[in-house]
Write a structure and sequence with these properties.
Elements (H helix, E strand, L loop, with lengths): L7 H7 L4 H14 L5 H10 L3 H12 L5 H11 L4 H13 L8 H10 L2 H12 L7 H15 L4 H18 L1
């Protein structure tokens, strides 16, 4: 996916009342490969009740290859309170094969702010980083976790400790 101009007819298709038009627009986005549509797809994902539409949108996010997609996904993650969307975006993070290591601090903040299930998904994302985050970010992330882990519920505390150990392994 690249970052190109937005086609108004595709946006109209996404906002259509019929599932078929929405699916056609999603397929057009997928074949055109434009990351500029990702926020629109996220919006449709939250609003739709159609599992077919949600599945197709999820597939688009998981297939992103263009590096701009990582920044867009993290921005969407930071700005949503919708649990279903957050879960889909986190799944996309570890399945898309994009490098999210430069967003380590964002993931740590999300894990600390959200519930156990979100923290679990964040740990999965961090453990699947293919490149080590920069040393300074590793240190800051470990410090944030150390400072907050004691105030967390037992089960979430264990997850955060796992993340801390994974980050310490990156330092080696």
């Amino acid at each position: 996916m690249e970052n190109k101009k937005i086609n108004k007819s595709i946006i109209e298709g996404l906002n259509a009342k019929t599932k078929d038009k929405q699916l056609k627009a999603i397929e057009d986005i997928r074949s055109g490969g434009n990351v500029a549509y990702l926020p629109y797809l996220a919006n449709v994902y939250v609003k739709t009740v159609s599992s077919d539409v949600k599945d197709k949108i999820s597939a688009v996010f998981q297939d992103i290859k263009h590096t701009d997609g990582a920044e867009t996904i993290v921005t969407l993650l930071r700005n949503t309170s919708n649990a279903d969307l957050r879960s889909m975006l986190l799944t996309a993070c570890w399945s898309s094969r994009l490098d999210f290591s430069q967003y380590l601090l964002d993931f740590v903040d999300i894990a600390l702010e959200c519930d156990y299930l979100v923290a679990f998904e964040v740990v999965t994302v961090v453990e699947n980083f293919e490149t080590a985050p920069p040393e300074a970010e590793l240190e800051e992330a470990i410090g944030r976790l150390r400072g907050s882990v004691g105030s967390q519920h037992f089960s979430k505390r264990e997850l955060l400790l796992d993340m801390m150990h994974a980050l310490e392994d990156f330092k080696k």
